[in-house]
Every structure is written in structure tokens, then in C-alpha cells.
Amino acid sequence: MSDDTIRLVTIGRIFRRRWRLLTILAVVGALVGYGTSLLFPPRYTASASVLLPGAWEERELLTQAEIATSSVVVDRAAATLGWTGVSGSELRDRVSAKAADGNIIKISGTADTPERAQHLSDQVAQQFVAFAARLAGDDTDSEASAGPETLRKMVVQTSRRITELADAADPGQTVESVQGRTELEKLRIALQEAMKKLTEADPVTSKSNMVVMGPAARPSGEAPPTRTQLTVAGALLFFLLAVIGHLTAARMSRRLRTEPEIAAALGSTLLGTVDVPGEGRAHRPEGGGPRARIRRLLGIDTRWDMPTPRRSGDEAGRQIRYRRVCARLRDQLPAPRRLLVVVPDGDEIARRAAGQLAAEAKGDPSPSSSSRGYPVLRVVEVSVDRPIVPDRDTESGALVVLSAGSRTAEELAGIAEACADAGHEVVGIVVAGTVRARPTRTADRPPDEPTLELAVRGHATGGSK
């Protein structure tokens, strides 16, 4: 797993180098969202409000909201509406209620047309008020509703009788008459206070008079998720999944990016790094066919996770790097030799760097008899799936040239084994990287155009992995 930190610059690089793929995936997601909306018919939601007068606690309001969506209320509403093929159990999934501020129960109904949604919410609100009134005893045919009124009348009659008894008592100022009138007055006051408490606590007078606050407003738009919302959500979902997929692939990548890791995988020493001017197709693999054309169309034929090439010096400065590599290679070998320059198949950057190395070695600045010249280099491309290196003939040794972050440790180990099977020792490694070239200036010696000599895999022999 790569330990690179996922930063905004990484996401920006995905947008810049994979914008075609991201755009196509977003369009596909939008089509999927649109197709999903066709499977679900449009829905409309209307809401009716019911006012509950009096003092209510929060738990009581929640209880009333549950009553509003109970099977009794919804079944009565379904029977009143009389919609064909729509039962109370089906309507129960389309009706919801919640307690709002100000002792208000908001009842919402969802249907396939605005008119039906309006009728459904109005009917459920009316049936809820009627059912709540019946529970509170506000039914004129109920015997329980006559109980509190009869008690009030009896209290009034008793109060009048107490007044008559007080007036008929001995008007004298005896102790017995005063005590009698006092007891009668206390009894009347107690009856009045009890009647007042009964009136305040009576649910019929304080909490049963629920009011429907007008008819529900006819909805003017579809209930979410609408067709537009599903289309946009599909496009956004596919877009995000594509970005997350790129980040996950980069995080799980096992490609070697640093020079010490590459040198350890090949079991040799690093001779140096060289620069290759970036071109429009520097990272693009060659080849045709429908798959290659589709990859080029989607923009996935190039690596996106490579860092932006840094700006390099002029052509003369880049040639100095190649000459230094050739010089280190000459100093490392005991005698002038012919070497194979092994390049992984499909690594265009390494192929161009190897061609430049071969040209520099061929253009050795006229070595004298006392100084040994550069080794003669022949470039061969080796498949990483089944690596085959030509047998040892005139060449005795291999120089591996590759770009950073292009191959895994297993692939490089396979190339090293193929070199060993063919009798070639890996004498060194060169890592190539792309740079942004500045405008070229006239150099002291223009580079020769290298002629790459590629190994024909069909006739080559050697070890394989």
C-alpha cells in the first residue's frame, strides 16, 4: 500500500487527467438515475393542520400524533374516500403526522395526484378530530357526556338549598345559630371550589375541542425524490465513486516509486537518474485495436498518479546526465564490454531514455589509448508478463532502464531472473523521469538520432518467469 498522503493536489490531478472518464461516468449515472425515476411514479404530498386548544405536554402531543396515523383513523378515511383498489393498510404507508410548535398536529398525505393528496390529508384530519372527540366523551349520544353536566346542576341546587337553610336558621345571636350558619357557608364555598376544579380538569371542555385549521393546500410540485433529484443524485454518485476508486487504486498500488526500492528489487546498484522531455504521448502505450482506441477516447491510456513533471534545464544540461551515467558505467566495468539495455515493455519514458543512452555511448568523445571508452549498448524491450532476455552472445551484462512508479517488485524481480537465466549480470540501474523542457538552445554538439535495436521475442531465447 502506498503511504502517499491524499491531498487536494491529488484530487485535482484526477480531475485534470481523467476528466473524460469522469464526465462519461457522470452521464451514465445521470441516465441510471433517470431510469430509476421511471420505475417510481411521481408522488405529491399535502398537509393539513389540527389545532389542539388548552395545555398539552409533549408526550401527550406525541400520543395524539400516533392516534392520527392509527389504523382506526386511516381505515375510516379510506372508507370515506372510497378509492378503488386502495385499502386502509396501503393508505397507512402514505400518511404521516408530527407534532409542531403551538399545539399543532400536522397531518401529511401522499398520493399520485395533487387532488388525491389534498383529499387524503383533509379526510384523515377530519377523522382524527372526530375520533379524538369520541375518546374525550364529546358524543351527544354517549351517557358519559351527560355526567359532568348533571353534577353541575346538582351542585347548583345544593348551593341554593344551603342558602335557604341559612336564611331559615334562628336569626338570633346565639352560639348555636352562628355556628350553624358558619358551617353552611363553609360547605357552600367548598362546593364552589370543587366545581371550579372539576371545570378546569374536565377534558370535554378543555381538550376535546380540536379544530382543523382549514383545508390542505394543493401541492404544486412533486414530493422528493423528484426525477430531477434522482438524475442529479445518480450523476453525483457515479462521479464520487469514480474519484474514490482512483484514490483507492492509488492507495493500494504496489508500484515502486523510489530509487532504493527499485535497486533492491533488481538486486543491483543505481547508476543515476536521467530526464526525458515530456511529450503529449510520452506516457501513452503504442498499439492499435478497438480497446486501445477506447482507452485513448476515455483518457485512461496514460498514468494519472504520476506527479507533474518539473521544469528542467536545456538540452545540454540533460545530456550531461546521460554522459555521467555512461561514465559511471565505464568506470564500473573492468574492461570495455557490450551490454544489453533492458527496457520493460510499454514504458515509453524508459525506451526514450535508453535510446538516448545508446546514442551517447555511440558518440563517445574519441577515447585515447590510455582511457577506456564507453561500453557498446544495445536496447531490447522485455515483456513483464513473461520476461525473455536474449542469450549471452556478444553482450555480457545488462543495464536496466525504467521509469519510477511503473512496475511492481514482483515484475522487476522477474526481469532480474530472466537476465540471470540468459547469463547476463545486471551491472546497473538507470531511472528515467519526465521533465518540462524549456525552449531549446543551440548546443555544442547536437544529439545523434538513436537507432534502437529491439530484440525479436519470437526468435529470442532465455529464461522466463
Q: How would you characterize the overall build of this protein?
A:
This is Membrane-bound polysaccharide biosynthesis protein. It is a single chain. The protein folds into three domains: 64 residues, no CATH class; 162 residues, no CATH class; 170 residues, no CATH class. Helix 2 packs across helix 10, helix 4 packs across helix 6 and helix 11 runs parallel beside helix 15. The strands form two sheets. Strands 5, 6, 7, 8, 9 and 10 form a six-stranded parallel beta sheet that branches. Strands 2-3-1-4 form a four-stranded antiparallel beta sheet. The C terminus is likely disordered. The chain is of the alpha/beta class and 465 residues long. The chain has 15 helices and ten strands.
First-last Cα distance: 24 Å
Catalogue the unreliable spans: 441-465
Q: What portion of the residues fall into strands of 2 or more residues?
A: 5-15%
Helix/strand structural class: alpha/beta
What's the Cα radius of gyration? 46 Å
How many E-type strands? 10
Q: What general outline do the C-alpha atoms trace?
A: rod-shaped
